[in-house]
Amino acid sequence: MNINQALDLATEKNLDLVLVSPNSDNPVCKIMNYGKHKFEQAKREKESKKKQKTVELKEIRVTPNIEEHDFNFKAKNAKKFLSDGNKVKITVRFRGRELNYVKLGEEVLNQFVEALNEVSTLEKRPLLEGKNMFIILAPNK
After folding, report:
1. What is the mean pLDDT of the segment spanning 109-129?
2. How many CA atoms are closer than 13 Å to the CA of 29, on its beta-carbon side?
């Protein structure tokens, strides 16, 4: 069909002439309400975004000489974060002379890994960066 005929037909029906496939030998056009089409497309995209789950990284900070009650409390919070589907970054912060006892911080992180092994997997081994040592735990599938 000629472009002018198609445009006349579209204006007759109070609709738009939309180019569907411009790259083919014969360009393909469609007569439709373009505003309604864009609205429905945006609605579908919004609906698909609703169903997506974004994974956040929650951080828990501890010291190398953490007490048992504090450890249990932080482990309980980490378990809650993991059950919600978030990743957990556990950071041991060394201050002053505590940097001489990096092994204590590594032991604390290993305790967290053992305490949370039924709900998580270790994603990143203990790593010392400056005055902080951290691990990242990901929830089990």
Report:
1. 90
2. 16
Q: Rounded to whole angstroms, how far apart are CA atoms 54 and 43?
A: 20
CA angle 137, 81, 138 (to 5 degrees): 20
Find the angle CA(51)-CA(56)-CA(115) to the nearest 5 degrees: 115
119 φ, ψ to 5°? -115, -5
Pairing mode of beta strands 57-62, 87-93: parallel
pLDDT reported for residue 42: 94
- Is 127 within 8 Å of 70 (Cβ atoms)? no
- Run of H or E including 117: none
According to DSSP H, which parts of the chain are helical? Answer: 3-12, 34-50, 68-83, 102-115
Q: What is the pLDDT of residue 61?
A: 95
Residues 75-96: what's their mean pLDDT? 93
91 three-state secondary structure: strand
Specify the residue for token string 């411009």. 22
Residue 96, H or E segment: none
Instruction: Calculate the average pLDDT of the chain.
Output: 90
Long-range contacts of 17-24 (CB under 8 A, 24+ apart): none
